[in-house]
Amino acid sequence: MEKKNVVIHDKITIGISACCMGSPVRYNNKGWDMLATLGREKQDFMWCPVCPETMSGLGVPRDPIHLSGGDGLMVLSGEAKIKNRRGRDVTEEVLLGCGSCMETLKRANATAYIYMDGSPTCGVYRTSLKKQKRGNPPGIFGAMLLDEEMFLIPATDVQSPIKWWDWRRRLLAFHWFRSLPLENKDDLYKAWYVLKFLCQEIDDTFARDLGRKLADLPKNVEEDTMKSIRKEILETLRKPSTVKKITHSLWKNYSYYRKTKGQEVEGINSPDFRRNVTTIAKELLLMERTAFEEEVFFATSPVIYRDKRRMPKVEAYDAEMDEEIENTLKGILPEEE
């Protein structure tokens, strides 16, 4: 089987809480531009900002709202309410607003969503901004996103170069595999060959168990079994990796590159080099670019995006990508251990 990265050319649509894209739609008429740190890479995606509260008709500025009597799932089932600071029940309005936002994401064919934790609507693991309290997660819209099995990215992670790189590579793999036609065991096995090294990094036990499971499958795999395996893999791709695992995977893949090409890449440091997260992110971007150019399988980032318009421009590619790497990392984070 040919060892080669999957290249996709269509931009992925990512939904995002509008307040995280700079829109001043929070209750206090404020917002944050969480995407500013992405630089030119922001152009690699389509963005679909939504705000459940404003779509609910609550306006800006407005009284803060909170979950009362349970979490967002219980609101959806009618067991809990949403009230504002003055005690007014705004459950019906917020449910309509959340439903409208979800319909918008579906029309946009959004694969992922960048959410701001701490919100009673968009929050997934927190619905309170108080330091010692998580609130009643998930929020109402957060519960809908979980039900739709969206690829969910916390907004604060977008500002970290290493965390964003991890989310991006897993999102690309998730998007590709979710829509990949699987008709038989051979299709499944070929797809797993592309994804298994990334899955091993994220959860080695799961990956090895699934490898044995695939080997034992009959030639004609039942549709329900195929769906179950696809769901398991997608759930694994949603899980973040760690800096330690990512660094180990980088060196392992770099070693494979050196063995295959018989040459080194200037800018990739030895395993004992004391790296910080900014340096690691720069090495990962450099290795992605180099592996793509040299047509060497970079297994830790198996699915990559490339704009079709840039593909033939090989002579200008190096300088352009060098600039892109610097712009991606510039000003993202201070040097940290």
TrEMBL record:
> Which InterPro entries does the record associate with it?
2-thiour_desulf
Name the Pfam families on file. 2-thiour_desulf
Protein's name in the database: Uncharacterized conserved protein YbbK, DUF523 family
Question: What species does this protein belong to?
Answer: Proteiniclasticum ruminis
